[in-house]
Design a protein that fits this description.
By secondary structure, the chain is α/β, with parallel strands linked by helices. Helices cover 38% and strands 25% of the residues. Belongs to the LysR transcriptional regulatory family.
Length: 302
Amino acid sequence: MLDVRKLRLLRDLAHLGTIAAVAEAHAYTPSAVSQQLAALEREAGAALLARTGRRVALTPTGRVLVTHAEDVLAALERATAALAATRTGLSGPLRIGAFPTAMRTLLPPALVALGRAHPGLDLCVEELDPAAVPPKLRDGTLDVALVHDYDLVPIEPDPALETAPLLDETIFIAATGPRDLPACRDEPWILASPGTLCHTMTVRACEAAGFIPRVRHHADDFVTVLTFVAAGQGVAVVPELAAAPVPGGVVLTPLETRRRTRLAYRAGAARHPAVSAFADALGARPPGRRGTARGGGRHGQQ
């Protein structure tokens, strides 16, 4: 019989890439992770990892087992959700992740509504970039999260996660006068921090317009970004959620690309009462609960 805890370690190795990263995610030592994976190989009766020096990679058999591990873990989530549905009332922690503009706009009214409807829930929120969400959902640090991606930066599917669509946003060029993207070729730019989705999206949008942005400032808070634009410090790309209020002297010109915001959770957890209650408070529609939602599906990163 294969051990579920060891299957989870193998699944996380497939996502995280190194034993050290798996150990950090689970608060184990690398030695302990290696021992558990070696025990899983004995249980499976086959080599799951190919070792070259200090590096490991999944064998074809290991990749097959990871696929089945995802199904097993999703089934456990569904069982957990079914058990939770038999209880009266919602209580305990609900750990929520959200990106900064969602923290400021979408989340506060949802938290108020959820707190009134389910006062037994202990709502715990963490602000983070969407790229940091998938590992925190997989390891149970978060229960649900608000994430986003862009037409120009689509997210690769992650079989461990599912999403429900929430909203699509227009993306704008913010400048001191109306101008399209090609007209910003020679302007200084204000970009988000490297490694964030917003940074990657802006660079790709500029590249699609035939140039590489000349970066003057890095700022992740869009209020700051718009203030800098108003001060003549450069141009920037901002999503609709972040575009209000607009400082005097700043003109927003819409682009064709869009940003999509979604509610993310572990595969199999859509029917968990706490996840359903949070989705209701946001107006999201998890697939399989109230009909198939437009754009619903699986999500992963970042």
